[in-house]
Amino acid sequence: MNDVSISVIVPIYKIEPYLSKCIDSILDQSFTDFELILVDNESPDNCPQICDEYAVKDNRIKVIHKTHGGLLSGRKAGLKQAKGKYVAYIDGDDWVDKFYLDILFKLAEVNDSDLVVSGHFREFDGKIETVKPSYTGVFEEHEIKNSILPKAMYNGVFCEHELSTYVWSKLFNRELLNKVLFDVPDEIVMGEDAAITYTYLTISKKLTISKIPLYYYRQRNDSILKTIKNLSLEYARLGVLKKFLEIKLSPFLDKDNLNTQILYYLYSLILVRSGGLIHDVSGNITFNPFLKATKNSKVIVYSSGSFGRHLLSSNSKSNFFQIVKWIDIDFHELNMGDNFVKPPSSIINTEYDFLIIATTNPSIFKSIKAELALMGTDPDKIVQINTDEKEVYNLLQQLGFDSNLT
């Protein structure tokens, strides 16, 4: 295949029910000057056959069958074969708007940008939420280095990023991406998007951010809760991510800024994956991030998303809290053990001590708290997440991260 404008790379593993929709949405693009690279990560279902069948039908498709590895290995394998001026990554269980490539390409070309960022849709159980960057514009190299990079992972408000971590909903310059991606260690399996995106920022000359939502991110019920089988291995991998970010970003950021950004970014990853409640090897709770809520408190958990489910799972091992109800305004028919998701209207103020809104996003927290207040929920019972820098630092030290964090 001759050189093309865009190489679309789709890593694939165990997503058979969703793959055709993803591929069809790409082949149906209004923009046609692209190649589609399907990277089969030794998927044990029918994904390999589906990829080959599509390749027979459309000569823009190239299929790579590789031995099983992580998501990062699939992205690397695709990039090695890419011929496009730009690269767009799409996860195989997601899909894109008909004008996705068209708009990204125009934004890149008109503004001579190395990186283009767009908004996206979050789809969960048939319901769709629109997610847009907080601002738009074209940013020159000095603005990227002096304004965006120092706030990339932490902009002063916990878990608010100046630039989203995801590699999807972005368009990369292939030559620049080649300088970054292959340096990212394959051992990084959580936070790998941040390792790619923020390192790429350091060599970008121009950035364009658009609020137009074009990418459909599917939040799957069968992948939202992944059990942590080996905590030591999990934290060791986070340690690799920490060291990588330190090495790549330290030439561009002062030490205090970099340490604070990494500290809070790692903390956010640990919170969501652990459900907030940190156990020791004996199963005892050694860290509880939910301010005011203590052992045996009667608690309502708000959120049927990843954080909420991990919190319920974590608590089931220790019975640290008495979970009296599980609620979500974005109501879904879900259950975990004896807990079934119920609507916020089911709250009775006398039945609980505290209400935990299981999100690390402060904007979402404020929005949910305001909605609950309209229904008469006692705001004094809604707890905040502990973001005290010293206590977060002590937690990471306890988990085995080295003293370079401060």
How would you describe this structure to a colleague?
The chain has 406 residues and is an alpha/beta fold. It has 3 domains: 6-218, Alpha-Beta Complex (Spore Coat Polysaccharide Biosynthesis Protein SpsA, Chain A); 231-279 and 390-405, no CATH class; 290-385, NAD(P)-binding Rossmann-like Domain (Rossmann fold), CATH 3.40.50.720. The chain is 36% helix and 22% strand. The protein is built from 12 helices and 18 strands. The strands form 3 sheets. Strands 1, 2, 3, 4, 5, 6, 7, 8, 9 and 10 form a 10-stranded mixed beta sheet that branches. A 6-stranded mixed beta sheet has the order 15-16-14-13-17-18. A two-stranded antiparallel sheet has the order 11-12. Strand 6 and strand 7 (127-131) form a beta hairpin. Helix 8 packs antiparallel against helix 9 (255-274). The longest helix is centred in the middle third of the chain and has 20 residues, at 255-274. The mean pLDDT is 91.
Structure in a nutshell:
The chain has 406 residues and is α/β, with parallel strands linked by helices.
Query: How much strand?
Result: 15-25%
Which fold name corresponds to the CATH topology of the largest domain?
Spore Coat Polysaccharide Biosynthesis Protein SpsA, Chain A
N- and C-termini, Cα separation: 50 Å
Count of separate DSSP helical elements:
12
Per DSSP E runs of 2 or more residues, the count of β-strands stands at 18
Assembly type: single chain
Shape: globular
Low-confidence stretches: none
Radius of gyration: 22 Å
CATH homologous superfamily heading of the largest domain: Spore Coat Polysaccharide Biosynthesis Protein SpsA, Chain A
CATH class of the largest domain: Alpha Beta
Order of helices and strands: EHEHEHEEHEEEHEHHEHHEEEHEEEEHEH
